[in-house]
Amino acid sequence: MSVVAKNDPELNRLAENMMERTNISDSDVVAGGLELTFSAAIDDAENLEQLGPVIKQITETGRQEAFVDQLDNLVRKKDAEIERMCNAHYQEFVQAVDQLLKVRQGSVALRQKIADVNVALQTRGSRLSEKRRELIEARRVQQNVEDAIEVLQKSLTMLELANTANVQLESKKYYSALKTLDNLENEHLQDMPSYTFVEHISKGVPLTQKMVKDDVTIQLREWLATVRGVSREIGSLAMQRMQERQDRWRTKTADNPKLRYLQHHNVNSAIEMVVNEGLESSIVDEVAIDFEPLYRCIHIYDTLERRHEFKTSYEEDRRAQANLALSAPINLRDGNMTPFEALLQDIVGFFIIEHIVMHSTQDFRSRGEVDALWEMVTGKIILVVSESLKGCRDPELFLRIKFSLLIFIQTLESFDYLVKPLQETLLTLFQRYSELLINQYSEVFEKIVQEDECMPMTVENADELREVMQYTRFRPDREFLKRHGFPLRLPFSKVFPTCCRDVSAFVHQFYQFAEGFSQTHGEMDDILKKAVDSLLIQKINAILLKKLQSTNLSQIVQIIINIEYFESTCPDFEMLLMETRSFHRSGRIHLKASSTFKETRRKAEKRIFELVNSKLDEFLELAEFDWETRELQQYPSSHLQDLVTFLTNVTNAALLNLPESIKSLLYFDALEHLSHSLKNLLLDPDNRVITEVALRNFDTDVRFIEDFVHQLGDPTILDTFAELRQLIDHAMSDNPEEYLTPQIRTRKYGRVNGRDVIVLFEKLLRDNTTTYGSNPRQKSRRKGMENVARVLRSVHI
């Protein structure tokens, strides 16, 4: 009925109309109620909300009977429709029922047959089941027998393997024993039942493995102790081989002209390794150490899959051995190098063994681990050296330590160890060494120069002369030696050859330490140049400069000679520095000392001029010129005679060894100073009057000095008194007015200053004691002087 209702268009239409209408009629309400009632039976959920208002409205309007009538009509209508449908399909229904009856009869017969077959099958199955149970029991017994046989066979195999492992352990075949135990544990014990003897064997395998591990570990520790004992021997041999290699390289580069330019390349440098490729043997080939205990231990721990444990243990053991070697007390200040050299040999041997182990094993000693250990040892060596040398003032000890450290560095550098920190330590030692060396030679130079007596050096024989010539450029010829013979007096004092020898020794001692520092050789060249300059300037030159304060003329002369020789030897010092400096540096070296010595020489020359001039001033201060005298003297003044005697002695004694150029300068300066001093005496404003007689006496003194100047025979000093001579000649001339004629003045009085003429003429004209009236010539001369003075005053005012 629900299907019919859902497909009934009339009911659907009725429901739709009820929803659309707003004014519901009675018939509509009844029809709507029917439809909703019918629909509610179909789907209460869908029509409940619609049915409620309809029933409510029917009840409120009192149409219940009409609604029931309409509902009855609808039912009758639907019954009629059902009846029509049944009449249409009745024949088919009858046929279906007949067929069902026939099927029912066949199924009853079939059921009887099945029951009979089941009874027969049950009877036969019981007998078969009994036989099957018997068969299963027989097969179970057979399987138990087979399992027992298999277990016995496996037990025999397992016991045989256990016995084999014990035999291998007794014969020290540890690896074979471990492999047997591994085979026993992983392939046999796991498949065996939990029998007592199986559990006993299973528990014994780890114990046996531990026993093997402990045994090889003990052997390794014994091997480590043996290695520690031979490390020093290996290190000593390696350092000896390196020293021999250095000597061969030095000899090869020195003897072979083609390789001479390579002699500054160190051992282990790329150049040295290329030249000697295939010629040098490795110390590794000579190390007679049996590494089998180590390799066995590595193999066993690998087999036990405990390599990391062994690596850690080995690292700790080796680090402990390194610390033990470094723990020995070392004091280098007492000069005993034996403990320090033994320490270096121990370390070299130690790290050669590390090198061999690292390159002969795989994944055991990594480069990082060995480098970390090397870094630790390097730091402690540097600390030992630094602490031991605190306060040390002995350059020779620094040099010995340097040689030991250099061989140590080069030996381990050949095994690819990083040696830069040690090289930096050597550079630090070098800086301290150079400071000590400079201080030592500063004291030596200071003592030599201070104690020098500034007297010419004397050599007693040819050997002493050769020693002087070895360090200086002084080369006397045969005639000189034949003429003077021995003992031979040299121009310079002892300070010059002694300092030259010590400069050479200083340079060679300096480069003794610098050997092996190719990376920083250029920096050392600069340090040495500054050091040599400092010694020459701050010690030799400075002390000689202080000695110039002396008033001893002979000492000043000797200082000038010494300084001149030092100045001339500076190019030799420069050449020495160029010959010993780093091979890759070129260009000329210039020492500041050369110009400093030149400046000091000029100061020394000036000092001689000052001393001589001062002495001349002393003579002139002692002189008592009587400018108003009436007594004509026949001979020069005594003080001027003494002055000339002094100059003669200076020439023949004190200045004897001076170069002629300096002598000429000295003479020129002294005589020019004397000339100006005498002119100043003549023109002294304190002396207002000069008589004719006093002027003639002064002319006699000047001529005496002029004669001395001519006797010296030096053409450069002949004109030193020209100005004074022209002034005196003009004052004594009968025709003073000729000075006013330019041509005559230029020719005869070219050096005379007009102001000097005025002063001198005024002094002569103030002499009223001289009688000019009876002598026309004198009267004319006086008028001429008055005229000249008047004209010159008009010009110079």
Describe the structure.
With 797 residues, this protein is an all-alpha fold. The protein has helices spanning 2-7, 9-20, 26-42, 44-61, 64-88, 90-170, 174-188, 196-255, 270-275, 292-303, 307-326, 338-360, 367-388, 395-413, 420-451, 462-471, 478-484, 495-514, 521-547, 553-580, 592-622, 638-654, 660-682, 692-712, 722-732, 742-748, 754-765, 776-796; strands at residues 456-459, 488-493. Strands 1-2 form a two-stranded antiparallel ribbon. Helix 12 (338-360) packs parallel to helix 14 (395-413) and helix 27 (754-765) crosses helix 28 (776-796). The chain is elongated, with a radius of gyration of 67 Å. The N and C termini lie far apart (166 Å).
Mean pLDDT: 76
Q: Please mark out the parts with pLDDT under 50 across 5 or more consecutive residues, or reply none.
A: 1-8, 10-27, 32-43, 258-265, 270-275, 277-281
Number of helices: 28
Give the structural class.
Answer: mainly alpha
What is the spatial order of strands in the main beta sheet?
Answer: 1-2
Order of helices and strands: HHHHHHHHHHHHHHHEHHEHHHHHHHHHHH
Number of strands: 2
End-to-end separation in angstroms reads 166 Å
Largest sheet: 2 strands, antiparallel
Overall form: elongated
The helix fraction, in percent, is over 70%
Beta-strand content estimate: under 5%
Rg for CA atoms: 67 Å
Brief digest:
The protein is mainly α and 797 residues long.
